[in-house]
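TASK: fixed-backbone design
INPUT:
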C-alpha cells in the first residue's frame, strides 16, 4: 500500500490540502491504514504552549489598555472618580436635616 507523503498528510490535517490531495488521503484511510490515521491524529494535536509565552503579549495589552483609558479620560473626570471612591457618600438631604 503506497502512503501519501507527509507533506500531503500535514496539509490534510491543517485543512489546506487541495481537493485532489484530500481525495487521496480519504481513499487511503478508507482502505484501513492505521499508520496514516495515527499520523494525522498526531498532526492535528495542538502544540503545547508554555505559560511564559503569554506574559509579554498580556503585558503589552495591559499597558495599551491603561494608556488608552488614560488618554480618553479628562483630568477632571479622573479627579471626580478618585474622590468618589476615596470619600464616603454624602448624607441624603433628609438625613442632613434631621441632624440639625
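OUTPUT:
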Amino acid at each position: 500500500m503506497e502512503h501519501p507523503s507527509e507533506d500531503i498528510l500535514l496539509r490534510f490535517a491543517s485543512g489546506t490540502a487541495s481537493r485532489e490531495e484530500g481525495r487521496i488521503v480519504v481513499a487511503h484511510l478508507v482502505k484501513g491504514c492505521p499508520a496514516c490515521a495515527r499520523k494525522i491524529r498526531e498532526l492535528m494535536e495542538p502544540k503545547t504552549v508554555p505559560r511564559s509565552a503569554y506574559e509579554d503579549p498580556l503585558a503589552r495589552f495591559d499597558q495599551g489598555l491603561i494608556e488608552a483609558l488614560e488618554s480618553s479620560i479628562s483630568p477632571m473626570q479622573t479627579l471626580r472618580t478618585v474622590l468618589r471612591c476615596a470619600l464616603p457618600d454624602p448624607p441624603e438631604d433628609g438625613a442632613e436635616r434631621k441632624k440639625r
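COMMENT: The helical segments are 6-14, 19-30, 34-44, 55-72, 75-86, 93-99.
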